[in-house]
Amino acid sequence: MPIEIERKFLVTGDAWRAAAREVVPMTQGYLNDLAAMDTGAMKASVRVRIQGDEAYLNLKSRELGHTRQEFDYAIPVDDARGLMALSVGGVVDKRRHYVEVGGWLWEVDEFLGENAGLVVAEIELDSADEAFDPPAWIGAEVTHLKRYYNLALATRPYAAWTDPERAATDAG
Amino acid sequence: MPIEIERKFLVTGDAWRAAAREVVPMTQGYLNDLAAMDTGAMKASVRVRIQGDEAYLNLKSRELGHTRQEFDYAIPVDDARGLMALSVGGVVDKRRHYVEVGGWLWEVDEFLGENAGLVVAEIELDSADEAFDPPAWIGAEVTHLKRYYNLALATRPYAAWTDPERAATDAG
């Protein structure tokens, strides 16, 4: 069973842009909302994503933090459009930049639309305590803040956040 | 976008068994419950099914009655087992018999476990008002009774139904 370990950080400044080797526009929606996961009504989120001429259906278990089960399937783009129309909340639009620094691959998500202004970087690790070298543009960790989940951004976008919500991090 | 039109009927007696040309054991679970559909928290159900050495992930829109959008994807059986563990409610076990009568293909679902005693027959049509010839063992229609949805059986199995619930049909 595939296990995914990810940590998520705020991004400071624009220095990362020079190191980006690829950018992929992504549009995604969810068939459920965060509340369904929080109450235990659902044990997995269901996401549909269109990126360029590819589309994917993704299911992730709801364990909090950085360790989750994940299942991902390529589906026809037409199906994805049909499924997107069945999503709850809004569609999340972003540009994902792949940035390699010192042998580590960072995914820098620059959000658009209702989530414009939000930029986060994720790194995938083999274990929760694996050491890595964060580049200078990596800010505070927000792995455990649910409002940063893409699932949460679909129903409560960055535009709706308060200043304290924008300022808080995993450290407090 | 694939559209599926199905009508569902109770089955009386065992005469259909002689005409069954194939039987497929199916085990299925749902990542959401009926309540999520009823409240509009979700616009589609998400089902995982294992049948023999094949497995499928299925998404259906929540329009009531017999007209629905449906998406179905083959997935690895190991994935299906992992996803089944993330389902809500119980697992629905049944034997699906394919019965052809007068050019019409009927799917007769004989439920097991907590749903033992329930046998229903479904027919897939090109339009909601398409005429067809029901064989003698087809009983009253239950297309519009939600408790017969497999999704509903996962959380409230046939064993839990009252006698009036077992007796009622679309006609009343």
What features would you describe in this structure?
2 copies of one chain form a homodimer. Chain A is of the alpha+beta class. The first copy, chain A, has a single domain (3-167), classed as Hypothetical Protein Pfu-838710-001 (Beta Barrel), CATH 2.40.320.10. Helices cover 16% and strands 45% of the residues of chain A. The first copy, chain A, is globular, with a radius of gyration of 16 Å. The N and C termini of chain A lie far apart (33 Å). The model of chain A has no long low-confidence stretch (mean pLDDT 92). The A-B interface holds A 1, 31-33, 35-36, 41-44, 46, 57, 59, 61, 69, 71, 73, 75, 78-79, 82-83, 86-88 and B 1, 31-33, 35-36, 41-44, 46, 57, 59, 61, 69, 71, 73, 75, 78-79, 82-83, 86-88.
Order of helices and strands of chain A: EHEHEEEHEEEEHH
Strand content of chain A: over 45%
The residue ranges of chain A in which pLDDT falls below 50 over 5 or more consecutive positions are: none
Q: For the largest interface in this structure, which chains are involved and how many residues does each contribute?
A: A-B, 25 and 25 residues
**How many domains make up the 3D coordinates of chain A?**
1
Shape of chain A: globular
Radius of gyration of chain A: 16 Å
Strands side by side in the biggest sheet of chain A: 1-5-4-3-2-6-7-8
CATH level-1 class of chain A? Mainly Beta
Number of helices of chain A: 5
Q: What structural class do the secondary elements of chain A suggest?
A: alpha+beta
Name the quaternary structure.
Answer: homodimer
Summarize model confidence as the mean pLDDT of chain A: 92
The main β sheet of chain A shows up as: 8 strands, antiparallel, barrel
CATH architecture label of chain A: Beta Barrel
Terminus-to-terminus distance of chain A: 33 Å
What is the number of beta strands of chain A?
9
Question: By CATH's scheme, which homologous superfamily of chain A applies?
Answer: Hypothetical Protein Pfu-838710-001
Please name the CATH topology of chain A. Hypothetical Protein Pfu-838710-001
Helix content of chain A: 10-25%
